[in-house]
Amino acid sequence: MIPAVLITAIALALLAGPLGCFVVWRRMAYFGDGLAHSALLGVAISLLIGISNQLGMILIAIVFAVALIWLRTQRLLATDTLLGILAHAALSLGILAMALLGMEDAEVHDYLLGSLDNLSPDSLPLVVLGSGLSLGLLMRLWPGLLLMTTSEELAHAEGVPVRTYEFLLMLLMGIVVAGAVQLVGALLITSLLIIPASTARLFAKSPEVMGVGGSLIACLSMLIGLPIADTLAVPIGPAIVSFSVAIFILTLTAKLAMDWARGKKPAA
Amino acid sequence: MSNSDYLISAKNLCASRQGRMVLDHVSLDLAENDFITLIGPNGAGKSVLLRHLLKLETGQSGSVSHRDGLTIGYVPERFQIDPTLPMPVRRFLSLNNPLTAEAIDALAAETHCEALLERPLAGLSGGELQRVLLARALAASPQVLMLDEPAQNLDVSGQLQFYQLIEEIFENRDLSVLMVSHDLHLVMSSTRRVVCLYHHICCSGAPESVARDPEFISMFGKDMAQMMSVYQHSHNHDHNHDHDHSGEATS
Fold first, then answer.
1. What angle separates helix A105-113 from helix A236-264, to the nearest 10 degrees?
2. Helix A236-264 to helix A207-232 angle, to the nearest 10 degrees?
3. Residue B137: closest CA among chain A residues belongs to which residue?
4. H/E run at residue B74
5. Interface probe, candidates B96, B136, B144, chain A, greatest A C-beta count within 10 A
6. Which strand (E) or helix (H) includes residue A96?
7. Is residue B88 part of a domain?
8. Quick one: pLDDT band at residue B4, thresholds 50, 70, 90?
């Protein structure tokens, strides 16, 4: 296991915690899946025009977000239908383009499920830097984003530029996707966002605790999942996600047990 | 922005939704220490008017001007928090809105929310939630308090208590109130002016004169008009001068 890979994974996990909270609160899981699927098209395009993978994926994420926002304002179809169309169009086009560009099945498979083999070490500092900047931006936007998540109308009335914030949130998700596709794989990225945040929700009494808790749980999943996947030579994404699900189930069990014990006590 | 005599001044506001005219040349001025109750049937454009007065939307024609540096506290009609978001009341009050712990306690005392501060927003009852929203609307010491049907989901005693609270706040604070409400009889003692909206302003004026307006009677029926004039009668009888009216709505 290269230390640089672990550091990159930690950086992504720190960002995934609080960002994942918004995915849970704002019900953006399907949007995250759509972004992740469209990332494959981003990989194909970057291969075609010779730019870095990450840049290609972020560009496609922006196109995806703008297309979604625009289509939604047309009020022709429900958001989840639009997402389904956009995501599967991008996924199909991406895989077709990868095939036409002569990419081998094994390589496509790695993009879907994550692998250490096609990680280019040069891109790791870029991912760490991008995650750090994104985390900084998310912390700056945090109060406004929280207010618009609580009530969009109140946020609007109190001067939060709601549409801009919404776009920036989508952009941040695009950045996580671009940073994490090679590690976790396009199929599983959304779970990196929602499982740690959902686990933290079980004990968090404030949005901040949920964000920080999500980060710590995501880090823990990375720190356990990555070395094990490396040692056993199994796909990384499924290994990380399985461990984060295990942490979720343990926390849920503990919470249910505590609630049960509390219920057993005589009323205070 | 302007330095007019009014805090908010709307002139000949026109707006449409899905091709239908919702506001038709509406003009409305809100003065200092004014208390306007905005009434009208469902779909009359009351919420749309509030959104324009807040400058959340701009109409097709006409204008809305705010006095320079105007701050508005707003209690929206719909408020539903996702239960996956853990948000204690104390955190909500200071969200995007830096307040000291003392300021939060004072706000909570004013709006009778002291016992709610550590509770999650998602677990509050309708009446509790409205008081918290009111507290938040007052956090920035606004010159204008705007409320959009704030008591529509409350039971009768909850409505009574909530409107009493609004009247207390109106008396104790230096602010103007603009409220959409159908419960005119409950806010009668504070209401300086009733504005009756049905896309255009049908009638406006002091509550007792509006109750006699034929347009008002045709829109709300004789019962409402009678209820208002009966109330108004006792009001005139008991209190001829502008002294303390608190508690009157319950009598």
1. 20
2. 130
3. A154
4. strand B72-75
5. B96
6. helix A79-100
7. no
8. low
- Is residue B116 within 8 Å of residue B89, measured between CB atoms? yes
SS3 A124: helix
Instruction: Give how many domains chain B has, as a whole number.
Output: 1
B95 part of contact set with chain A, CB < 8 Å: yes
Residue B111 inside a domain? The answer is no
- Identify the domain containing residue B237 by its residue range: 8-71+142-250
How far, in Å, CA of A226 to CA of A88, rounded?
Answer: 29
Length of chain B: 251
Tell me whether residues A156 and B56 touch, CB distance under 8 A.
yes
Say yes or no for a CB contact (<8 Å) between B84 and A209. Answer: no
Say whether B96 and A160 touch across the interface (CB within 8 A).
yes
Answer whether B74 sits within 8 Å of A154, measured CB to CB.
Answer: yes
Burial of A159 (0-12, 13-18, 19+ CB in 10 A): exposed
What's the CATH code of the domain at B228? 3.40.50.300
Query: What's the token pair of residue B173?
Result: 């604070």
**Taking Cα atoms as reference points, which of B189, B71, B95, B2 lies closest to residue A142?**
B95
For B176: left if phi > 0, alpha if psi spans -120 to 50, otherwise beta; the answer is beta
pLDDT in tens, B90-148: 999 998 888 899 999 999 999 999 999 999 999 999 899 999 999 999 998 999 999 99
* Contact between A29 and A182 (Cβ < 8 Å): no
CA distance B57 to A245: 45
Contact B79 A151 (CB under 8 A): yes
Distance (Å) from the alpha carbon of A54 to chain B's nearest alpha carbon: 31
- Are A207 and B86 in contact (CB < 8 Å)? yes
- How many angstroms away from the CA of A212 is the closest CA of chain B? 13
Nearest chain A alpha carbon to B95? A143
Question: Inter-chain contact A25–B95, Cβ cutoff 8 Å?
Answer: no
| Complex ipTM over 0.90 | no
Nearest chain B CA: its distance from A189 CA (Å)? 21
In a domain, B203, yes or no: yes
Which residues in chain B have their CB less than 8 angstroms from residue A147's CB?
95-96
Domains of chain A: 3-264 (1.10.3470.10)
Angle CA(A238)–CA(A241)–CA(A247) in degrees, nearest 5? 140
- For residue B5, how many C-alpha atoms fall within 13 Å in the half-sphere facing its CB? 3
The predicted-structure confidence for B34-62, as pLDDT tens digits, reads as follows 999 998 888 888 999 999 999 888 888 88
Burial class (CB in 10 A: 0-12, 13-18, 19+), B209: middle
Neighbours of A97 (CB within 10 A): 17
Length of chain A counted residue by residue: 268
* Measured distance CA(B170)–CA(B228) in Å, rounded: 21
Residue A177: count of CB within 10 angstroms of its CB: 30
